[in-house]
Amino acid sequence: MSKRALLEVIALDAEDAVAARNGGADRLELVTDMAADGLTPPRETFAKIRAAVDIPLRVMLRLADGFAAGEPGGADALVEVARGLRAEGADEFVLGFLDADGTPDLVTVERLIAELDGCRWTFHRAIDRASDRDALRKQLADLPGLDTYLTAGSAAGVDDGLPTLLTEAESGARGEPGYGARLMVGGGLRLDHLEVLLAAGVDAFHIGGAARPGGWAGSVSPGAVRDWREALDA
User: Fold this and answer.
1) CA dist., res. 79 & res. 90, Å (int)
2) C or N terminus of the chain, fewer CB within 10 Å?
């Protein structure tokens, strides 16, 4: 029997979280402000969602649009936010920062994971903006807690990134250095992408807008999430 594929859904509030859970989501990514591609939600939002559902929650650590630690407050502010979320009970996270040359901002990343103290975390789509994806993976390979890369294979989305995703899935299957973390595909992902990705061994998928037939102004639809769950389980 094959392993069940993981389905992660973006949730903005407790209503989204309940709808995603009811549709068959395995895990939620918690964010706010999708106009900026997802920023850290308030502690109060995390607490409400944690009280509403019992599935795993990964909380975004990102305070400004883009992939630099930057303003407001830079790495110091990110550490404070992480500390507050940990105090609220958060134990899984999403983060990823690049320097101006497209290499990983190891100073910021290492400060944050020290604060997370062993929590599991995803390096998000900053990898799709990296100057050298393979080098980034090798630089991050031994960081504690890193268990997932969220990627479309390209900054432009899965349509453009599919060849890269298939190559990276193959590298992971071969056990190449830097490819031990789980490959989770998201960013312009459609149901018609699933067949080739599943055949390549990809077993984790991330959706946001695809779970919201009315767009980001609306809420997550349990039915839309269920369509994905059923496609993955077929």
Assistant:
1) 14
2) N
